[in-house]
Input
Amino acid sequence: MPSREKFQSPTGMHDVLSDDELYFQKIEKICENIADFYGFKRIETPILEQTELFERGTGFSTDIVLKQMFSFRTRGGDYLTLRPEGTPGVVRSFIQNGMINLPKPVKLWYSGPFFRYERPQAGRFRQFHQVGFENLGVKNPIVDAQIIQIFFNILKELGFKNLIIELNSIGDSECRGYYKRILATYLRPYQNSLCADCRQRLKQNIFRVLDCKEEKCQKITKGAPQIINHLCEECHNHFKNVLEYLEELELPYQLSPYLARGLDYYTKTVFEISLSENEPMAKEIGALVGGGRYDDLVKILGGKDTPACGGALGVERIVSLMKAKGKKIYSAEKPQIFLTQVGESAKKKSLKIFEELRKEKIKVVETFHKDSLSSQIKIADDLGIKYVLILGQKEVLNNEIIIKEMETGKQETVKLEKIIKEIKKRLK
Ligand code: AMP
Output
């Protein structure tokens, strides 16, 4: 007989099984608390957006748009794309919902799945999760420092110690034009030694050559002029202020003169946060957080001129590193009560008792599908349960229930109407 085909999840896309779910929840909870403290409100945007939003927002010449988008045409003829990153969707929503009229800054955060057609490898998937923070409406460099601090705090609270913030300024539309010409003059003689992508980038967006991960390109860019030495006065002062604020906050940053980040919309500050290279798996996994200022994006996408700054962390990368460091996460609340029943009338009655316990927020495990008391007690024992409730025919007739303390074996019979009170007394 031919064996039946086994379905697999799509390449680079994974199920988040219950053990990993605990890590995901922990990360999300910390982000939620931090967002609340810093005054960020949650936003959910659709997983699909118009393809053009990313083409114009993320940028036509970026790897994301050129190579990594899952795009398709709907039955109605629209071109849509599974969101490869969060910022363009948030900005679209900001414009569409008239958030420009809200008091500034508008602080938004999000958490959810993102999609990029990447070559799957450690820390790089085709479906992954990000948590992002975006601050819209303020030009002041203190915002850049606060965004960096938020992500730094999240990673600290997750127990990471040796963190490195890499920082650069890529100027604005004015000083960047001048720098691009200087960079072009430097790169021109090396044209033929660059990788094919970079040769293309020379024409489309020369800045992106600085981002290339190919060794032969990195060897060339190592000697390239640094934008930081060619910033206009405003960008220079902005960056200087960001550094001063980071120092005030005692955040461990290092200048990374060729950090350009892959996206077209950044202006001025760009940053990445990683674990120090000597930590297990840190190098393979890469940056945990990436972000920067994007003062032109709202305008590019059709809104009013609005400065903004933000970033996003990669949940899967953080989970991998937490595991590599041997951090275990346990389910927050382990049940201490186990409800057993013997006989049909007890089974019926226990359905109601179970619901009463739920209403009182008492965590309880049931085994309604089991009939024998000994097999139910065995499960309770395996789970390390503290108190087992036993309901048999006799107890149902007398309107009573037995509470058995597993450690001592001590049993006590109590009236059914007192069960909640009796349990709460014991769990105190
Ligand atoms: P980016 O949107 O490229 O700036 O990425 C921000 C963060 O998301 C990175 O620092 C990673 O932690 C994470 N990330 C980006 N792309 C992927 C991917 N393909 N798989 C897993 N995590 C990713």
